[in-house]
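dude i think i finally got it to work??
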Amino acid sequence: MINQSYRLYSPKQIRIEQIDERVKENDVIIKPIYLSICAADQRYYTGNRDKEVLKKKLPMALIHEAVGEVIYDPKGKIERGTKVVLIPNTPTEVDDVIKENYLRSSYFKSSGVDGFMQNFVCIDRGRIIPYKKIEDRIAVLLELMSVVMNALEHFDHYSHMRKQTLGVWGDGSLGFITCLILKKTFPNARVVLFGKTEEKARYFQFVDETYQIANIPDDLRVDHAFECVGGLGSEAAINQIIDYINPEGSIALMGVSENNVPINTRMVLEKGLTLLGNSRSGYEDFKAAIDFLETYPEASDYLNNIISEEVIVHDVKDINRAFENDLNNEFKTIMRWKV
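look at this
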């Protein structure tokens, strides 16, 4: 099958490349309908990665957040037109202890291998999950939701039972979804947002309290915390969490930083804190995200608020416009894929 891949060759330079797609027996052909731009994609697009990393990974089709519809199933088991979410993590082995997204042998779409920015996606049938009751433009957020579900599983397994106050640092899309899922999962807990700007905090109407990070009461304490900042702000966020968390609390680290982050290990030791590393997600996390939206349909209304812009994409110029606009959008930029 002849396919077209929209590959990034160098920062802000996307070219269309013809590829001869070999459809294996267990594959399914998907037509993407919505794609969502992630901060990781943006770092590749703008060239904000180490030069050696870019040299090694490019050219590459971006985007790992996508939903689409089935065009062809060689086995005839999945009906044409079925809406599915695409799972970017691709394991090559099964481990009885380590989850698929933490196996070093797994590979990940738009991180060393082509992502979903293609005319058609040829993907293993074990890497898609059908959905029915979710609007497509909301379903494209399922990948980010699955990342939170992965973190929540870690948190539930390793954290102690006192969960009266849960703090979330970061007022971006990841912080928003984390707050939303926490509030539904732990309805009796006090969920507190710690953000940078008052304007963005207004979107978090469902949390119990919001504070700007420069104006936190001295006596405020949280039992556990979720760090959703990443980047250059990671250091300040993690160290502030260490200051405001109660002894033996858990800190779920979710923000990605390109550089090493210095943290106050002395207080980590003195308080007996647990740092939980969280990255990406797997099949079961996607299922949990779909179940969440089907159980709490009102959550879709909240999620719609963090779609800052929907860009209709017909060609490379539209792709570039979406990425450029995303740099100034407060939350998520999604692309209606009509190439």
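The radius of gyration is 20 Å.
im so relieved honestly
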